């Protein structure tokens, strides 16, 4: 048999495709943290968008409302809480000589810029709000470059989340029509990944974010009940409760149980009111621990991933990739896990994962089918896979595969 002739035009297009793929990979690599955070915002707001688009038309307006009325204020509040938490960590590290080891370089660059904002305790004690606003404005002028760069990244995050919300369903249908295989492996894989990413981002991480905010606000307000600020570093402790909520079983109890014991000893030795310790424990258990768990628990239930694997992804992600590793680590875990459970067994089996066969009736007469091809013997109107469902329009990519038991792919 003569070797196939080299199609120069095809080779040229392959080279162009490789170059374009390389350029796209370079862009994603340069802004990987921004893209991953945009993916988080998309999954965090998608349940809200799905409800709003039934009442708000067009879908673009529903997506804007989801992002600018809900997501943007929540992100701003979380950024403020994190900045105050960094300030409290700086004071604690100077006072006690604490070093976070490999995590220290991740926090150090943001210590100076965090002082643009004032902590809530200072705001509550400052009688002149005008002086505070003037001081904050003067501090912000010294970080115009940093603020401009941050606003650019925020714009990219919101734009990515907006188009995923509005056009995600359209893109998924196009993707399935072009690349889905006869046995529905790609569709099952994408749906499994989508389900677990939604569980992780809207369940675990969003729960940690809201828990951190609730904890920081609650502990700061508790310090206003009793003079002397008995709760040390309230914002930092609130953020620690949010981070501890990612730990299975015990969760944030690792933070407020020891702190309750510390406050009990402190109030007893200094003659302070012991009822404050009871109040602190009640607020921690009911407001900080139970409320986020009851509100978001239904969205976390039914996970396919082992909670231990998810916990290690949260731990090793920031250590390997930096701040965005807390998002990228679980994403890589989801892709690897479902590849090993869904795709790898198919690759190791005797069967082959092939794209859908093409009906010969739609091929040009000059198109030569390879000898022995399963399409060769098909006739016009025959379905090469009788078990495959086809939508009324005859487009093979839009109908769910009968073996797929995954939920919606995010339309």
Automatic annotation (TrEMBL):
Bilayer-spanning residue ranges: 12-44, 56-83, 140-165, 197-222, 242-265, 272-291, 311-337
This protein's UniProt keywords: Membrane, Transmembrane, Transmembrane helix
Compartment(s) of residence: Membrane
Region (Disordered) location: 365-411
Transmembrane as UniProt keyword: yes
Signal peptide feature range: none
A GO-annotated cellular component: membrane
Domain of life: Archaea
Topology class, membrane: Multi-pass membrane protein
Polar residues: bias regions: 402-411
Protein family: Belongs to the autoinducer-2 exporter (AI-2E) (TC 2.A.86) family.
Protein name: AI-2E family transporter
């Amino acid at each position: 048999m003569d070797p196939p002739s080299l199609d120069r035009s095809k080779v040229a297009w392959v080279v162009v495709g490789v170059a374009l793929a390389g350029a796209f990979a370079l862009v994603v690599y340069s802004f990987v943290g921004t893209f991953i955070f945009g993916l988080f915002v998309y999954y965090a707001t998608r349940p809200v968008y799905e409800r709003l688009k039934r009442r708000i038309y067009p879908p673009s307006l529903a997506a804007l409302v989801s992002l600018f009325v809900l997501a943007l204020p929540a992100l701003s509040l979380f950024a403020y809480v994190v900045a105050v938490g960094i300030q409290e960590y700086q004071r604690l590290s100077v006072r006690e000589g604490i070093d976070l080891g490999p995590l220290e370089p991740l926090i150090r660059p943001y210590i100076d810029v965090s002082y643009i904002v004032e902590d809530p305790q200072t705001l509550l004690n400052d009688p002149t709000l005008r002086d505070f606003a003037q001081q904050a404005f003067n501090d912000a002028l010294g970080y115009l470059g940093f603020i401009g760069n941050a606003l650019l990244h925020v714009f990219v995050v919101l734009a990515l989340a907006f188009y995923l919300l509005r056009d995600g369903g359209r893109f998924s249908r196009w993707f399935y029509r072009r690349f889905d295989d006869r046995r529905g492996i790609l569709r099952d894989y994408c749906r499994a990944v989508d389900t677990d990413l939604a569980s992780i981002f809207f369940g675990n991480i969003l729960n940690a974010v809201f828990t951190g905010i609730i904890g920081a606000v609650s502990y700061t307000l508790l310090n206003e009940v009793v003079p002397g600020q008995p709760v040390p570093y309230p914002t930092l402790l609130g953020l620690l409760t949010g981070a501890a909520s990612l730990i299975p079983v015990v969760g944030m109890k690792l933070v407020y149980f020891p702190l309750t014991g510390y406050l009990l000893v402190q109030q007893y030795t200094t003659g302070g009111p012991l009822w404050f310790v009871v109040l602190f424990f009640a607020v921690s258990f009911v407001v900080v621990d139970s409320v986020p768990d009851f509100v978001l628990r239904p969205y976390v239930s039914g996970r396919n991933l082992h909670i231990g694997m998810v916990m290690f992804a949260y731990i090793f992600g920031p250590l390997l990739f930096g701040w965005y590793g807390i998002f990228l680590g679980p994403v890589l875990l989801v892709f690897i896990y479902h590849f090993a459970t869904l795709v790898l067994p198919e690759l190791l089996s005797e069967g082959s994962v092939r794209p859908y066969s093409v009906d010969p009736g739609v091929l040009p007469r000059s198109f030569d089918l390879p000898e022995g091809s399963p399409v060769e013997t098909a006739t016009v109107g025959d379905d090469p896979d009788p078990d495959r469902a086809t939508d009324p329009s005859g487009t093979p990519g839009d109908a769910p595969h009968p073996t797929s038991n995954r939920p919606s792919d995010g339309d």
